[in-house]
Design a protein that fits this description.
This protein has 14 helices and 18 strands. It is α/β, with parallel strands linked by helices. The strands form six sheets. Strands 3, 4, 5, 9, 10 and 11 form a six-stranded parallel sheet that branches.
Length: 419
């Protein structure tokens, strides 16, 4: 006689499938870089933002009842670091803090926690405080509700898997100071407050994402009026060598002026905002970390073809004459600037990125004369081997950038087939 399994088993199977699909989506987001920097839109403060918020302290509590703005105690400084953990810079920041015996608060990106959980464990083990900075550095002011929930749930899970703790501290990416809060920021704060999170802003921005010298960071992060401060710095998201160089002098300067250093929670008079995570959160977080690490470890492509070179037709390869002419395209280089937050009222700074020819010309592959239409023929023996190996699939790109669309980092002349 055939036995029918209990109906409850189907609910368990459905739950496992949902969890697996969510984890798979997050792993795919990591590989694609979903929600990366450069997608934020500028906004101005609006009438819907309460004056108690725009003119209040750096911590906003919208978890229930009227919104509460919390200020920093006088003579107190809370150093906060965003966008980590980063294996290149976070250990150096921790070393300086350990030498100076100063606590700090780290707002971590979930995908980086999954990739480097040992760094977050070290932060917690050495007495520092940890908050969330979303999972993919997404702009919560423009994100739909479902993405906000997923970003925070995934960040909470990997933090629990890495440290065994949960936190209620959240610093939204691209945020600034209270007087720069706009309508969309305010609605995002209400949504995250309903999920149980405090919104953490800053009072002083070290501008380490745009500083030209360590002293510029020290000047921007030093309070001028003797009041308490929440200082915004970064331990990830780009080259933070100037941040590391400025951190020691900044601490010495503030100590000489009589400031004391605490975590963010202590600076605004709150009890510790971390607590042991439930067993299920730890198990789920550990599994999610393993899945993401496995996804990141898989190379994006096993093909030996250079990026941007079309695949050859294996069934009917097109013969190429030895007299086919080739011409060189000018090399290119890329310049970019890491994203960050600007001064009050200026709105978030967008990523600036451009590619240009090394020779300074304003256009690539531009034919300026009749002779360029008929370049001299080149012998097959004079063609580099890397190009000959793909002779059955001539490059038809119009510019050097299209040969390397993903990175745009070519450092030598690029060879292409002449029409």
């Amino acid at each position: 006689m055939r036995t029918v399994p209990p109906r409850g088993h189907w609910w368990v199977l459905t739950g496992v499938l949902v969890v697996f699909l969510a984890a798979l989506f997050l792993a795919t987001s990591v590989l694609r870089g979903a929600g990366g920097p450069g997608t934020v839109q500028e906004q101005e403060p609006d009438g819907l933002v309460p004056h108690s918020v725009s003119g209040g302290g750096p911590v906003i509590d919208t978890r229930g009842g009227p919104p509460v703005s919390l200020g920093v105690r006088p003579g107190t400084v809370a150093l906060t670091f965003d966008d980590g953990p980063d294996p290149a810079w976070t250990p150096q920041v921790l070393r300086v803090l350990r030498e100076k015996r100063v606590p700090a608060t780290f707002f971590v990106v979930g995908r980086h926690v999954a990739e480097h959980p040992e760094l977050v464990r070290e932060q917690v083990a050495t007495g520092h405080e940890v908050g969330l900075h979303t999972f993919t550095h997404a702009d919560l002011a423009t994100a739909p509700v479902w993405q906000t929930r997923l970003e925070l749930a995934a960040s909470r899970a990997v933090l629990a898997g890495a440290t065994g703790e949960n936190t209620t501290l959240l610093r939204p990416p691209y945020s600034s100071m209270p007087d720069a809060v706009g309508d969309r920021d305010w609605h995002a704060s209400l949504r995250t407050g309903a999920l149980g999170y405090l919104t953490v802003l800053s009072t002083h921005d070290g501008l380490d994402w745009d500083a030209h010298a360590p002293q510029d960071i020290v000047d921007g992060a030093t309070p001028k009026d003797g009041r308490g401060a929440v200082v915004l710095l970064h331990d990830g998201g780009g080259d933070r060598s100037r941040t590391v160089a400025a951190l020691g002098p900044l601490i010495d300067t503030l100590k000489a002026r009589g400031y004391r250093f605490t975590t963010l929670s202590q600076a605004v008079g709150l009890p510790p905002q971390t607590a042991p995570a439930p067993t299920f959160d730890r198990w789920y977080g550990t599994a999610l970390i393993g899945l993401i690490q496995a996804a990141v470890a898989v190379p994006p492509s096993t093909s030996s073809r250079p990026a941007g070179v079309p695949r050859a037709n294996r069934h009917s390869p097109r013969p190429v004459s030895r007299s086919r002419a080739y011409r060189f395209l000018p090399s290119t280089r890329c310049s970019g600037r890491a994203p960050g937050t600007g001064p009050p009222g200026a709105g978030p700074r967008r990523r600036a990125h451009s590619c240009r020819p090394l020779d300074g010309s304003s256009a690539w592959n531009r034919r300026s004369s009749a002779t360029s239409r008929q370049p001299p023929a080149a012998s097959r023996d004079q063609v580099p081997g890397s190009v000959r190996s793909h002779a059955t699939a001539p490059v038809v790109a119009r510019s050097a950038v299209s040969l390397f669309p993903a990175r745009c980092t070519s450092t030598g002349p690029v060879l292409r087939s002449a029409p």
